[in-house]
Design the sequence.
């Protein structure tokens, strides 16, 4: 049975996959991280993802994630805050999802499927633990996670997908399958914005939100400028994103 797919996007336009700022002692600097989120929102960013890949989720405890959601929501009132609850095992991911849904007050949850999990059953369990909050599946070939085919994704009980493959073919499939899709690569913005994607959730929006938004709206020169930043950020990830301020 094919799951119902949400037709209205959770948000539209460009969101930021927020970096997590850490203090010298390794603890999360909530104030600095929230300040980065606020500045991105002031420049027009339409959503904030915390505790994703760019946010170095593997370094974060469940309590860290709860505190991040609270701090960022306080800094960006009216802007949807999404939290990553993916973990290396299904049990850990489900426990984290339940904790964040109960304690963190996120607007949506982003979850990748662990390698050993069966996607339909896993996301069905995620839906239960999410307690009514929207769920986005996360496809990122860079993660040690279960690869999700486009047809497979369209049958899952999720509200949309963040696809960080950078593949235009996957984007075409997902749009044609009427998925609510958010691209995770800043190299796709002109295409995604004009061809039916719901939005984007981007690491580069930490430092270049203005160009990311312009490219989403069809500005080809802005898209071209992002190519250089994309290559630099990949080489120096995540330090390059943390060492530059949003413009």
Sequence:
């Amino acid at each position: 049975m094919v799951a119902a797919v949400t037709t209205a996007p959770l948000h539209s336009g460009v969101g930021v996959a927020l970096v997590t700022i850490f203090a010298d002692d390794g603890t999360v600097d909530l104030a600095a991280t929230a300040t980065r989120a606020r500045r991105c929102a002031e420049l027009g960013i339409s959503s904030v993802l915390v505790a994703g890949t760019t946010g170095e989720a593997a370094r974060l405890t469940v309590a860290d994630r709860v505190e991040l959601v609270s701090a960022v929501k306080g800094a960006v009132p009216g802007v949807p805050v999404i939290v990553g609850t993916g973990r290396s095992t299904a049990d850990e991911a489900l426990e984290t999802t339940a904790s964040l849904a109960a304690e963190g007050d996120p607007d949506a949850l982003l979850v990748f499927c662990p390698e050993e999990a069966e996607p339909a059953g896993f996301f069905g369990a995620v839906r239960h633990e999410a307690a009514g909050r929207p769920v986005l599946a996360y496809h990122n070939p860079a993660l040690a996670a279960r690869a999700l085919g486009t047809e497979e994704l369209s049958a899952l009980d999720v509200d949309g997908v963040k696809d960080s493959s950078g593949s235009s073919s996957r984007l075409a499939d997902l749009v044609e399958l009427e998925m609510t899709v958010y691209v995770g690569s800043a190299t796709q913005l002109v295409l995604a914005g004009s061809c039916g994607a719901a939005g984007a959730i981007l690491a580069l929006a930490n430092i270049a939100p203005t160009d990311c938004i312009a490219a989403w709206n069809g500005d080809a020169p802005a898209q071209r400028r992002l190519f250089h930043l994309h290559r630099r950020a990949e080489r120096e990830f995540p330090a390059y994103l943390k060492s530059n301020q949003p413009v």
